[in-house]
Amino acid sequence: MQNSCHKLIKEHWSIAIIIVLVPLLMWAVIPILPTHDDWASTTKPDFTPFFTKEHFFFYGYHWRPFDTWIGYIVGRNPQVLWPAFNHILVVIGHALNVMLIYRFILTLGFSRMACNIATLFFFVTPAAMATVLAVDSQNQTYAMLWGLLSFLAYIKLKRSKYMVWLILLFIAALSKENGLMWALITPILAFGFNFINQQSFRKDLLIGIVLMIAYALAIVVLPKEIIIHPDYVPDDLKVFKNIAKFLLTTFVTVDYIYLLHGPSRNLPIAAFSLLMAAPFLYMVFGSHIERYKEKKLLCSIVCLLIAIGPHILTVFSMMHTYAALAMVSIFVAHGTDCCRQWQNGRLLISAFILFLATAIFIDAHLCHASYKSGLVGKKMAQEAIEKTGEPVKRVYVIIVEDDYPKLSSFCVIPNEAFGWGWASQYETNYQWPEIIKDTTIERSSVAMKNAHQMARKIIDNKTYDCVWIVNHKDIDVVKR
């Protein structure tokens, strides 16, 4: 028995390490509080009846019923379930994706060493942390999960192969729209790794395209209320910036907070983290560039572009890097096998250990920063409630424009951590205020004076019970 366990750990050592790390990750993530978009997402507490069209059909500019179901569940007891339930789902989803990545890489024909290194890379890379630490990222996590399952079903099954593949693709799409990209990724990747011939590739790629067209038609005919967010409208400059963000967050490991966040900037530590991770990253991504001419890697690059394309063309943040990490793990696995073939195995392991230590350090820093951002919003909400003094129904929030630097979901501007006032509902267990409206005014030397004048007019009109003026972390309350 002992020999069997020893053999399992020796063969699947990445899984053994991850099993140890998952409880630590869960412990670190659960205390992170909502900020920014979390207060407006469909996974926030929802108190409407379950059988409403918003829980099943197109809503806003998304068709993500699983998100609304989560919102319904946490709405049964927000103080206990939100955001802990959301975090638990994300961490479980990430852990399941790790197991699927291991099987995915093994299925593609890479060595056991490559599977272990690629799997552990997927689990600890800071590129995944914006998704793993977020409150509302179940959609991103599970879109990949169902996508990976659809690929494995396509490769492994003989009977009912297409039926299972299409069902899993549909579930992936209902998790998040980019899950549908696996309708194209699967046949392209299968062809690149010689699981299917050219004739099957053409037929199955056509099936994938037809499925995407069917999804688009369903969006058109379903009951819906389409709201086109301005951030989703592509333009050349934004696409170029998104490509740069994607390349830097995916293929360069550095402590982003120490590098990019002005108030936290510490360039020596950022440079040290970059130097520690660089040898491994160069070995698996940058060495022997000619290998990218191989059919399997050319197809993997195409799949990478397909996976990340929807985000590059619309909105890209660090969270969206996650959609491409399955393809990135292929490059890691291929680079690992190449390095071992060229007699650099020991050097690779040494470089990977340095990368692993650096990645865990950066992950811990990102996690702590996210936790601190959530606390800022909580303290602001508590201050607003305390200064208001008694329950009120209608609140108007005036925000003095804040030029304080931010970084993704890790280091959030205070008024965004405050959720433009919505954090107050959470602190009162959604008892009050019932109605919140906000506006932002330009920061200037007379901004606070203007805000108080505006607040007095709002109060005199008797439309709102009180006004909260937000100036960075400070809250002023104007009441009748």
Structural class: mainly alpha
Rounded to an integer in angstroms, the radius of gyration calculated over CA atoms is 24 Å
Shape: globular
Tell me the fraction of residues in β-strands, as a range: 5-15%
Roughly what is the average pLDDT, rounded to an integer? Answer: 91
Tell me the span between the first and last alpha carbons. Answer: 74 Å
Number of helices: 20
Largest sheet: 4 strands, mixed
Uncertain ranges: none
Approximate helicity band: 55-70%
Strand order of the largest sheet: 2-1-3-4
Q: How many β strands by DSSP?
A: 4
N-to-C order of helices and strands:
HHHHHHHHHHHHHHHHHEHHEHEE
Descriptive overview:
There is one protein chain. This protein has 20 helices and 4 strands. The mean pLDDT is 91. The relative contact order is 0.11. Helix content is 61%, strand content 5%. A 4-stranded mixed beta sheet has the order 2-1-3-4, sandwiched between helices. By secondary structure, it is mainly α. Helix 5 runs antiparallel to helix 6, helix 5 packs parallel to helix 8 and helix 14 crosses helix 17.
Write the layout of secondary structure elements.
Elements: H1 2-11, H2 13-29, H3 65-74, H4 78-81, H5 84-107, H6 112-124, H7 129-132, H8 138-156, H9 161-175, H10 182-192, H11 198-221, H12 236-251, H13 256-260, H14 267-286, H15 295-313, H16 325-341, H17 345-388, E1 394-400, H18 414-417, H19 423-427, E2 435-441, H20 447-460, E3 466-471, E4 474-479
Parallel strand pairs: 1-2, 1-3
Antiparallel strand pairs: 3-4
Helix pairs in contact: 1-2, 2-5, 2-6, 5-6, 5-8, 6-16, 6-17, 8-9, 8-10, 10-11, 10-15, 14-16, 14-17, 15-16
